[in-house]
């Protein structure tokens, strides 16, 4: 019986699954994902090496459990964390994310106002590290904590 189940799963993935997952590149506009997740993000505070944004969680960012989707949370850590690097006085071209980790401590729900607080921990010659906390604004409770490591583009001295 186990072999049959594996064969069924394999067949589904090879035939039906692949056909249902096909998406034409022209179906989505450029930067579709960023727009989907970041629309509604409001800038609140900028300090040297720190930025804070707020947003109300919209229905489009909920998962099947009706709370903020982890993919949206990771994108917020990546984007808001990247914005903190220029706030620390470094060039706007903040490079490429090489590591993102997120610990989920609680859930945030529909229409809940959240705060995304990013602080630069270190910027070296090639790498920057940023800590990002996502809090429920009403209670100040941290519901997710992230860390972003970015490779910084080489700057020519010529």
TrEMBL record:
GO BP: lipid metabolic process
All residue ranges annotated as the Thioesterase domain in the record: 66-141
GO cellular component terms attached to this protein's record: cytosol; mitochondrion; nucleus; spindle
Molecular functions (GO terms): fatty acyl-CoA hydrolase activity
Entry keyword set: Acetylation, Cytoplasm, Cytoskeleton, Hydrolase, Lipid metabolism, Mitochondrion, Nucleus
Record InterPro entries: ACOT13, HotDog_dom_sf, Thioestr_dom
Localization (cell): Cytoplasm, Cytoskeleton, Spindle; Cytoplasm, Cytosol; Mitochondrion; Nucleus
Catalytic activity: a fatty acyl-CoA + H2O = a fatty acid + CoA + H(+)
Family per record: Belongs to the thioesterase PaaI family.
Record note on quaternary structure: Homotetramer. Interacts with PCTP.
Protein's job: Catalyzes the hydrolysis of acyl-CoAs into free fatty acids and coenzyme A (CoASH), regulating their respective intracellular levels. Has acyl-CoA thioesterase activity towards medium (C12) and long-chain (C18) fatty acyl-CoA substrates. Can also hydrolyze 3-hydroxyphenylacetyl-CoA and 3,4-dihydroxyphenylacetyl-CoA (in vitro). May play a role in controlling adaptive thermogenesis.
Protein name: Acyl-coenzyme A thioesterase 13
Organism the protein comes from: Medicago truncatula
């Amino acid at each position: 019986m186990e072999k049959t189940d594996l064969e069924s799963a394999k067949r589904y993935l090879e035939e039906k699954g692949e056909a249902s997952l096909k998406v034409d590149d022209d179906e989505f506009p450029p930067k579709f994902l960023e727009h989907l997740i970041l629309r509604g993000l409001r800038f609140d505070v900028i300090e040297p090496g720190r930025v804070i944004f707020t947003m109300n969680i919209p229905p489009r960012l909920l998962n099947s459990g009706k709370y903020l989707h982890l993919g949206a949370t990771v994108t917020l850590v990546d984007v808001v964390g990247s914005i903190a690097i220029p706030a620390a006085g470094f060039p706007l071209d903040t490079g490429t994310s090489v590591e993102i980790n997120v610990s989920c401590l609680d859930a945030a729900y529909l229409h809940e106002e959240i705060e995304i607080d990013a602080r630069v921990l270190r910027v070296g010659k090639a790498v920057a590290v940023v800590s990002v906390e996502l809090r429920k604004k009403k209670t100040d409770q941290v519901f997710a904590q992230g860390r972003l490591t970015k490779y910084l583009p080489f700057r020519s001295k010529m």
